[in-house]
Design a protein that fits this description.
binds Phenylacetyl coenzyme A, about 65% helix, globular, about 0% strand, single chain, mainly alpha
Length: about 325
């Protein structure tokens, strides 16, 4: 693919004031930055970091739900869940491709994940214990992902923005299938309602953490906003998510696990209790309930499937040799 030619390209720029001003002027004029355009090293680095973390999140994010494919309660539920998990794998692949256009290889990015150097979203370090967790992941986790990703469709970097358009359409289907599971459970037996409430209780706070630290503690937000990589801050998106989700919980007849949650007429949004940031950083640093299992599963998949990569490379070599031989005839 066209990005392959860019891998390893140094993309070095002479970053004097005139260059940086001209770059910012392009951003401010809402022009898209494309892979071959000159860009500040910091812009490239920020994008590689964010897009790679996003790709890793999609791939690791297949694990909590993948665990339920064989245990889905009906054939219809199984088919929808299987398709959803496959979509997540596809999102990871679009995102790795978008990152490759910035001059890094997929191998390098995957190595960073497997060696523990690269982050992935904190949310995927929580276990999916019951079927209601699968509904809640679709409703809340995909719901939060969409809230964060819709603005990324307007990201200044063309390949990331374009990848996000399709991803968001698919995430929107995922959110609905999750909400529909929750609706079924919350209209079901007392046990099913209790299971739905229990899943909401466990996933609510981790879902709020997906948006990242408070703006005051966010390392990258200011620069990413100036470069129009991010269009809203972490707290702004978290607030939008809460305001959209509380009425959905009410419709389900479920209670938000936050005694401090209340409507604030003046700000036109909900006030909420404080997030446990110690828990957030613990999970981000590798000490959540499932961090070790998730990485173990990813490393095993990588090792078990080494033969597929080797076979694809051997086939590509043979095909290239055949082409050269035919050309020489
Ligand atoms: N988990 O300065 P900021 C999905 C790190 S996809 C772990 O605010 P930034 C689909 C952050 O990297 C979910 N680490 O960072 C799906 C940074 O560390 P660094 C993933 C986190 O980048 C659904 C440090 O904290 N979505 O769910 C987290 O400006 C269902 C300081 O933070 C994306 O990746 C966290 N939650 O803002 C799949 C979307 N939050 O790199 C399966 C794209 C922050 O300096 C099933 N990413 N950190 O070492 C973004 O929008 C941004 O990167 C943020 C963070 C908003 C996540």
């Amino acid at each position: 693919m066209y990005s392959q030619g860019l891998i390893g390209a140094d993309g070095a720029t002479h970053e004097d004031a005139a260059f940086l001003e001209a770059f910012q002027a392009r951003i401010d004029a809402e022009l898209k930055i494309e892979p071959n355009d000159p860009m500040p090293a910091g812009y490239r680095k920020t994008l590689v970091r964010q897009i790679a973390q996003h790709a890793h999140s999609e791939i690791v994010g297949m694990l909590p739900e993948g665990n339920w494919i064989t245990r889905a309660p009906t054939l219809r539920r199984k088919a929808a869940l299987l398709a959803k998990v496959q979509d997540e794998g596809g999102h990871g692949l679009y995102l790795y491709s978008a990152a490759e256009t910035l001059g890094v290889s997929r191998e390098e990015l995957v190595d960073q994940l497997l060696s523990g150097k690269a982050k992935y979203s904190s949310i995927f370090n929580y276990p999916a214990i019951t079927w209601a967790d699968i509904g809640t992941i679709g409703w809340l986790v995909d719901g939060a992902a969409i809230m964060n990703q819709i603005p990324l469709c307007r990201c200044s970097f063309g390949p990331y923005a374009r990848a996000m358009i399709r991803v968001c359409k698919e995430e929107s289907f995922h959110q609905r299938q999750g909400y529909e599971i929750m609706l079924t459970l919350s209209r079901g037996s007392e046990e099913q309602k209790a299971m739905a409430q229990d899943a909401l209780n466990r996933w609510w706070w981790p879902s709020l953490m997906m948006f990242g630290p408070h703006d005051a503690d966010s390392t990258h937000s200011d620069q990413s906003m100036a470069w129009k990589i991010k269009r809203f801050t972490n707290d702004e998106l978290r607030q939008k998510f809460i305001d959209a989700t509380v009425p959905q919980a009410e419709f389900l007849g479920l209670t938000m696990p936050d005694p401090d949650m209340k409507w604030n007429e003046e700000k036109g949004g909900y006030d909420h209790g404080e997030i446990d940031w110690d828990e957030f950083w613990r999970v981000v640093k590798g000490d959540g309930i499932c961090n070790r299992d998730r990485m173990k599963a990813r490393r095993k998949a990588h090792d078990d499937n080494a033969w597929v990569r080797e076979a694809a490379l051997a086939y590509a070599d043979k095909a290239a040799a055949r082409e050269t031989a035919v050309a020489a005839e």
